[in-house]
Predict the 3D structure of the following.
Amino acid sequence: MHIGCIVQSNLYINMSKAKFEIFVSSRNSQYYFRLKSGNSEIILGSEGYVSKQGCLNGIDSVKANAPHDSRYEKKDSYQNYTFNLKAANGEIIGRSESYTSSAGRDGGIFAVKHDASSAEIVDLT
């Protein structure tokens, strides 16, 4: 029995430990966020932001748009499956990691949809 977990495609996702991490890139000194699922896998990453407030606004946008199926753009190529999460205006607000199957990619979307709204924010800056 897995308390606080859900099962999707034989993948256990601990919803209670999902988190957004905010960090600054040493390459360009911009702020980024990444959404990690309960198993610490990165399921969504952001573009660079000039300010921390811009990065926090990006997280708010992910939380607002994540529940909506229409906001996900699925990308397929040979053994490389990804997705983008878009705002209502069509702007990309998050990009997935690469998956080797469409089922893996769809599991990533499922995780973002269910984890983003309740994920805590951890500031690593």
Remarks:
- The first strand starts at residue 5 and ends at 8.
- The CA atoms of residues 22 and 33 lie 4 Å apart.
- The chain has a mean pLDDT of 89.
